[in-house]
Write a structure and sequence with these properties.
Shape: elongated
Distance between the termini: 77 Å
Helix content: 55-70%
Largest sheet: 2 strands, antiparallel
Strand content: under 5%
Strand order of the largest sheet: 1-2
């Protein structure tokens, strides 16, 4: 018989005295009553950040950890305790930090060896909430070398273990060492079947794992390219996940995975999977009907895909009005709005720098090698004005993207004689050299070097003398 807890929840812990009395119940000898108290706590803190903070302040975490670590305690009590910790982890980032500081993560990782599936699932749900937060203690996952292989061993036990293990691994693969460790422990064979799962909540985190393990990693990308699922090549499955009947999130992630495999030389840039699926999908993600985050991610991934390949740059340049589409990024937020649009306008104002940086990086990749493409970019209405303004943007990421775009466009002899001279781009570039970091200094210096070439009228400007002196003394001097 289910107990009606609605009134109980409303009256739970109205003050410090009641909270202390509750803590006393947790330390009682009647284990049935203790279990009842833990269940009561679970119901009280669900969706209530105030109660979560209050109970954590009273020291409930330490007591719950005692239950979880006590192998003689009833499995139901240990499971409910893990569930409560998982609920606490879904509160504020401060709550997550307190859980980490209390040593929750190592305890839960050790408990994954328990034979009781429900208890393991409770531990995994809590770990997922912690590792997918901004305060994720990633290094703790790798502190014990036995944790990752064990997680891969238990991943197939249930949909919950599949979902949670994949979510944790996707968030905790941050370096090439992490990629190598996952690969050496058989992550591809363990998770590849999940890409064909009928459950979206399993399929999507598994796909994210393949994205993070293939990024700039030739060895892992080659292994993924040669892997199969039920005798079907894994790259073919990724193509299927790019289809328009899939969610936008899934299409984007599948296209990213194909992109990373291409840049890691595991797939040819002329492979039909790249030319006819990954590339068009990313271009489609830049369209106006997509959300802001989707457009930014699509443009950034597109820039990475085509960065070094002339043929892909040419295909992209005349595909689906890409250049005008990207130029719209630079005009956000729109100056025309209504009362109905104010909330959206405020949102765009806060994120417009992400759109600008993404567009400028995409233009930099598009114009890297082909004169006709550069001409098409520069002739786009007001684009050079936006690029020059980007050089003075308060956001460093936008400034660097603007410099990279100018560097790409400055390879054009014709534009050096016309558009660059008309906009006096050397002036904001000179300012960027002051207190610039290595990345900014390298690209800005290379761009200014292009302006100093014999065919550039700008080479006679006296102000370039200080630039030449700076380059002479700079260890990062990089002639293009």
């Amino acid at each position: 018989m289910l107990m009606d807890t609605s009134d109980m929840i409303l009256d739970t812990f109205p003050g410090d005295q009641a909270g202390r009395e509750y803590m006393e119940n947790l330390y009682g000898e009647d284990m049935d009553r203790v279990l009842h108290s833990v269940v009561k706590l679970k119901n009280a803190v669900i969706g209530n950040n105030k109660q979560k903070f209050h109970m954590m302040s009273l020291g409930v975490v330490a007591r719950l950890l005692e239950f979880i670590q006590n192998e003689r305690a009833a499995t139901g009590l240990r499971t409910e305790s893990a569930i409560v910790l998982g609920s606490l982890a879904k509160g504020s980032q401060a709550n997550v930090k307190r859980l980490v500081d209390n040593g929750v993560v190592p305890v839960l990782l050790r408990c994954l060896n328990n034979p009781d599936l429900k208890f393991v699932e409770g531990c995994l749900r809590c770990l997922r909430s912690i590792f997918t937060s901004q305060a994720a203690p990633v290094d703790l996952l790798y502190a014990d070398p036995g944790v990752v292989p064990h997680m891969l061993d238990i991943v197939s036990q249930s949909p919950t273990t599949q979902e949670c293990v994949c979510s944790i691994l996707a968030e905790c693969c941050k370096t090439s060492d992490h990629q190598g460790l996952l690969y050496s422990n058989g992550v591809i064979d363990s998770l590849a079947p999940l890409l064909a799962s009928k459950m979206y909540k399993v399929q999507m985190p598994a796909l994210r794992v393949f994205c993070v393990i293939t990024y700039m990693n030739e060895m892992v990308s080659s292994a993924v390219a040669s892997a199969s699922v039920s005798e079907r090549p894994l790259p073919d499955l990724l193509v299927e996940l790019c289809l328009r009947d899939k969610s936008v999130e899934m299409q984007m992630s599948a296209a990213k995975c194909l992109t990373y495999m291409c840049r890691a030389n595991a797939l040819s840039s002329q492979d039909t999977k790249i030319v006819y699926k990954a590339l068009p999908t990313l271009i489609r993600m830049c369209k106006k009907d997509r959300t802001l985050e989707e457009r930014v991610e699509g443009a950034e991934t597109l820039a990475f895909l085509i960065e070094v390949d002339l043929e892909l740059q040419r295909i992209a340049s005349y595909s689906d009005h890409l250049i005008p589409t990207l130029s719209e990024f630079l005009r956000y937020p729109s100056t025309q709005t209504t009362a109905m649009d104010l909330k959206r306008l405020d949102y765009d104002m806060k994120h417009s720098h992400e759109l600008k940086a993404a567009a400028l990086m995409a233009f930099a990749s598009l114009g890297a090698n082909d004169e006709d493409i550069r001409k098409k970019i520069i002739e786009t209405e007001n684009l050079m004005d936006h690029v020059v303004c980007g050089l003075s943007d308060p956001v460093v990421r936008v400034r660097l993207a603007a410099v990279r775009c100018l560097h790409s466009l400055s390879r054009s002899v014709q534009q050096l004689r016309t558009s660059f001279q008309d906009h006096a781009v050397w002036k904001p570039l000179m300012k960027l050299l002051q207190n610039a970091d290595d990345d900014m200094l390298t690209v800005a210096s290379s761009t200014l070097c292009n302006l100093l070439l014999e065919f550039s009228p700008s080479k006679e400007v006296r102000q370039y003398r200080s630039f030449l002196t700076h380059l002479y003394h700079s260890s990062t001097f990089n002639m293009n």
